[in-house]
């Protein structure tokens, strides 16, 4: 138990759950509050490795991927404790073990993001090579090339990559593709490199800007994060800082998709419309009306009609395009919309695998390479299905909101990797979702 009163072990959370049961209830209504962004929180935790002392992160989601990153930091010798419902305290001692073991990297491939921070602060790092996953192959060549540009040397043996450096030196890094992970590794390493580093063709996701804000609070000097060119003036040392994680735009889109499929009126507290521009454009085309609210806790007020309209085409692209993480949710919406849509995946070759599960629920979807033709059906048909990954799992639950009869989604532990209180929030919106014992 961290902090005495707050549960810290996975056993006390829903990620022990294997199956969810969903029955349709019609339109949704109510209010949910979005948790902190998984894909920012995990990297902020990794960045904490770079400053001796106590880091405090607020608005950290209670999800199993965060537990996994906490386990990774603990295995290196850091102390990680929940000191509030969503506040994490990370204590970095003088000496740590700069290594990410296979058991943890296998559980969560985002562990690779410790490579840059460790190399920068310790001068060496040993990290298990992440394999492929349900999206297909996911190489780390761009991460390594960027760190080599900064003066790292890598050898791979026995399933591990080992990096060393006599001291990183700032340089110009030109990424072949705006990879989120490679941008993060390069940016975190660059803050402790000697001189100026520029990262060109950098990823522009809001999470990159959040990580840069945190690093700057730690004493780094980063400009341009969130744009294609990030400029970093190296500093010799970072100090610990306190930071609040930005809201999770993918979680927000999940509740948008839920109300889109089921119809109704909901409010999503904490969601930031300015992080979701393009997906909101697509949702408007489908007939979802979203109003951004201001005030103490900004959010979105959402109205969805009884049935959505199809859209001609949706293609995933790096930010500010439609994120690949939204795609399963969009496909679930289009599977019940009126008309035919074409969905194109441009980031992960294998990210269509859940479609077979939607087809088992009666969806009319045909895939051809990285395209899917989705012919909307008014209602789907409840069936037993399996969640292949976080977002696809959430999308199957969303689709089940408009499926006659009961749907049971197995592999729900995937959903718990990325969603804080998934079932509780759907229930708060009036959905009939429960855990199968
Ligand atoms: N790529 C390479 N070589 C590299 C790095 C990436 O070929 O060295 C390729 C990948 O195979 C992929 C493309 O580049 O085809 C984009 O990958 P990117 O590096 O941008 O993705 P990532 O950093 O591995 C993060 C998120 C994903 C999200 C993608 C794209 C985290 C922990 N993960 O992954 O989120 O889909 O960016 O936006 O930040 C999720 O949250 O469930 C999730 C999978």
Describe the structure.
This protein is of the alpha/beta class and 437 residues long. Helices cover 30% and strands 27% of the residues. Helix 1 packs parallel to helix 2, helix 4 runs parallel beside helix 6 and helix 6 runs parallel beside helix 7. The chain is globular. The N terminus is likely disordered. Uridine-diphosphate-2(N-acetylglucosaminyl) butyric acid binds next to helix 1, helix 5, helix 6 and helix 12.
Please report the distance between the alpha carbons of the first and last residues: 24 Å
Please give the order of strands in the largest beta sheet: 23-25-1-26
Counting DSSP E segments of at least 2 residues, the number of strands comes to 26
* Helix run count: 14
Arithmetic mean of pLDDT: 94
Shape: globular
The helicity comes to 25-40%
**Oligomeric state of the chains?**
single chain
Number of structural units classed as domains: 2
CATH superfamily of the largest domain: Enolpyruvate transferase domain
Classify the beta-strand content into a percent band.
25-35%
Which architecture of the largest domain per CATH?
Alpha-beta prism
In short:
With 437 residues, the protein is α/β, with parallel strands linked by helices. It is built from 14 helices and 26 strands. The chain has two domains: 9-35 and 247-436, UDP-n-acetylglucosamine1-carboxyvinyl-transferase, Chain (Alpha-beta prism); 38-244, UDP-n-acetylglucosamine1-carboxyvinyl-transferase, Chain (Alpha-beta prism), CATH 3.65.10.
